[in-house]
Amino acid sequence: MTQLEFSTLTPGKPVRIVVSGKPVCVTRVGEEVFAVADTCTHSEAALSEGDVTGFKIECWLHGAEFDLRTGEALTLPAVESLEVFSVEKSGDLLTINEKTGAN
Ligand code: FES
Prior knowledge:
Layout: E1 2-5, E2 15-19, E3 22-29, E4 32-37, E5 51-53, E6 56-58, E7 65-67, E8 84-90, E9 93-97
Antiparallel strand pairs: 1-9, 2-3, 3-4, 4-8, 5-6, 6-7, 8-9
The structure holds FE2/S2 (inorganic) cluster (FES).
FE2/S2 (inorganic) cluster is lined by residues 40, 42-43, 45, 59, 61-64, 77-78.
């Protein structure tokens, strides 16, 4: 579990955090926040350095696109989905968790 403040996020500018030892890409889209694995499923690129358009993030290395809401790989060369993390908002505080076990 990792926490950060909503007010520190700029829409369309992802940040990289670590949750349970895993790199996670946190992206604000409007008033919503999404968290997906930061490592592209095609190779080792950090998605937090990619471009966000609406609910999509594009890997900067070879251009694969993923849906931030579901982690789904939308375009080649990626075919595997990203792990999605849960985001809970309480006031300005965001809590990012793995979606396993009791979550
Ligand atoms: S590493 Fe992301 S598309 Fe190749």
